[in-house]
Amino acid sequence: MSYRVGIGHDVHRLVAGRRLMLGGIEVPHSHGLLGHSDADAVLHAICDAILGAAGLGDIGEHFPNTDPQYKGAPSSLFLKLVTQKIRDAGWVIENIDVMILAEAPKLQEFKPRMKYHIAKELEIDQTQVNIKAGTNEGLGYVGTKEGIAAYAVALLRKQDGSSV
């Protein structure tokens, strides 16, 4: 069997007047993430991790922020399309591990819903998705509540009968 690992990272600035989308769900907060799409840093990091593991580039190549069709798009759409791309290339997702860095809001109570949503979009079991959240202890752009960052790791397995 052939396995590959990919890593993803995304960060967006927090601004007033936008919904905060993280892990495919809306998280109540005074600020949201600024971006061309809904700016869901968690789903963007997952997309990059999956694409990287499959050797298919990055999210910006597939869904450029200069393309008007993605203006305001839900990042769940990107996750669905990325999942189809890797399946077409003969890959299966083994697991996803995510680390969210946010000083505020506190995310503990939202992690189960994020996990459910991510697993549903990827068409995998919730046991294959792990989400962690932490702060930057007041340091840097995360610590000063200017932005939120997410890191993701994906492990893919080549489907039986496929070659790498």
Can you count the beta strands?
A: 7
| Outline type | globular
Major β-sheet annotation: 5 strands, mixed
CATH architecture: 2-Layer Sandwich
Fill in the CATH topology: 60s Ribosomal Protein L30, Chain: A
CATH class placement: Alpha Beta
- Percent range for helical residues? 25-40%
Order of helices and strands: EEEEHHHEHEHE
Largest sheet, spatial ordering of strands: 4-1-7-5-6
* Strand coverage percent: 25-35%
Count of domains: 1
Number of helices: 5
Radius of gyration: 15 Å
Name of the CATH superfamily: 2-C-methyl-D-erythritol 2,4-cyclodiphosphate synthase
Sequence stretches where pLDDT stays below 50 over 5 or more residues: none
Pairing-aware structural class of the strands and helices?
alpha+beta
Compose a concise summary of this entry.
This protein has 164 residues and is an alpha+beta fold.
